Amino acid sequence: QACLSYSNIAALTHLARKSGWDITKTLDNVKIWTHEEGAVLSLKVEMQVKVPSHVAFSLLSDFRLRQRWDRHFLTCEILQAVSEEEKIYHVTAPPTTGHKPRDFVILVSQRQPCRPQEPYTVAVRSVTLRAVPPSPEFCRSEILCAGFQIHSNSSSSCTVCYFNQVTSGVMPYLAANLTGSSKSIEDTALECIKFLE
């Protein structure tokens, strides 16, 4: 478990540090970037939020609050609190056209910064839990690497960066967005900002 949580945090840190991000959209307080490497598409959503970074961290690290602002989360329950900083959740997502609803079993690892210039981190990846085998009513999907980095701007504002390394399980929720026929990424980002503030 220690190895899994370390690799969870390390994968997100590595993704965040990659060079070659292309900006695809800029709104007032939201920027959307993409990064393509071979068959892997990664997404970065940068949000300017008027709350202290530790407040954003505590709200974003509890995934049970996610339904309040992210309509891609139908339900979310804690399956196992591995430690203060690691929790395993079961998440269900609404069906996309012509498909069954999806579900995910995810490990969420949270870390406070060790040094002032470092971000708060909330890393997410899929795990396998024997107690929750795939169910016939859902299409079990996988998250390779996703999560948030929260950088403090001042005592009352921060920059929240959301990352997702897009897999086929997540793609249906993003495809329409990236081709410009839907605004769900922006809408979700604006809902997130509203929720945090």
From TrEMBL:
TM segment ranges: none
GO molecular function per UniProt: lipid binding
Lineage: superkingdom: Eukaryota
Pfam families: START
InterPro entries the UniProt entry points to: START-like_dom_sf, START_lipid-bd_dom, START_lipid_transfer
Recorded GO CC terms: cytoplasm
START domain: residues covered: 16-166
PANTHER family, A to Z: PHOSPHATIDYLCHOLINE TRANSFER PROTEIN, START DOMAIN-CONTAINING PROTEIN
Protein name, as recorded: ACO12 thioesterase
Protein source organism: Eulacestoma nigropectus
This protein's encoding gene: Acot12_1
